[in-house]
Amino acid sequence: MLIRLAIAWMAGVVMGSLWSPGAAWLWAAAGAGLLAALALRRSPRGLAIALALACVTLGALRYGASVPPAGPDDVRLLAGRGELTLVGAVAGDPTRSEEGQKLLLRVEAARPRGRATSTTETTCPTGASTS
Questions:
Q1: For 117-128, what is each residue's pLDDT tens digit?
Q2: Structural domains counted in the chain
Q3: pLDDT digits (tens, 9 = 90+) for 49-60
Q4: Are residues 58 and 84 in the same domain?
């Protein structure tokens, strides 16, 4: 049974990385699973299913707790915006790898390409860097 619960935990971590309905819903589902486990403790099959539900939701909660929240200056918010114009400087020497060359940039502002300079800018704090 412990192996099945560990698999349920891992499945919860994967599900948490793909889809997150919110911590409140996950806590409610984990609580429901634990209450169901208490109610079904005399039925081995019901107990296993209820504990698996609790492990899945607790695994998803664990994944959510390990991901730092995105702040207003987070570089992750720039993903999927298309082409951007970055204002800043190269912060270090380039490094080469099998995939190509990697530059470490200290970005002061990012603007969608083709837009006027007066539009809203995403600014990064001093010292923030992206690769």
A1: 433 444 444 444
A2: 2
A3: 999 999 999 999
A4: no
Record the pTM. Answer: 0.57
Size (the chain), residues: 131
Same domain, 89 and 118: yes
Measured CA to CA, the distance from residue 31 to residue 25 in angstroms comes to 10
Query: Which tokens is 55 given?
Result: 């492990």
User: 84 in helix, strand or coil?
Assistant: strand
Q: Do residues 5 and 51 lie in contact, with contact meaning Cβ atoms separated by under 8 Å?
A: yes
> What band does 11 get if pLDDT is binned at 50, 70 and 90?
very high
- Does residue 48 sit in the same domain as residue 89? no
Are 131 and 108 in contact by the 8 Å Cβ rule? The answer is no
Tokens 């609580």 map to which residue? 31
